[in-house]
Amino acid sequence: MERITISLDEELVSQFEEFLKQRNYKNRSEAIRDMIRDTLEADRMAKSDAGHCIGTLTYVFNHEERELARRLTHAHHHHHDVSVSTLHVHLDHENCLETVVVNGSIREVKEFANAVITQPGVRHGKLNLIPVEVEQEHHHHGGSAHKHSHTHPQT
To answer: Which CATH superfamily is domain 52-153 in?
Structure first.
């Protein structure tokens, strides 16, 4: 691990210390590492849709909206290769929250998110992505071969 030194004015340090306290960080270094990771990942995602990612798509929707459930189901089935799992929560008599775990190419995941978030009746849609490297592994067991992949965060 490499050590670096930074200089900050008193007001910025004060705000940073309050941030650390609110988030329950044990030390400044871990907070700075998280901020750097977030910045590098956001920059990487803003520059290109190439590559792979994991993440979540969370949205609130009115299940009473005409044909919305059918349209959402269609979007999930049309993008079945990136929609890994869905958590569905009933908020009240009309509104539901769904969180979808996504995994795939950044371009395809963003297409799926846009297909869901832009539906009339969907509100508060938010896509959170983490760029990953995908490593393919091939295994042979008892004469049969199979492959699977591992994903590793890039930062």
So the answer is: ACT-like. Chain A, domain 2 (3.30.70.1150)
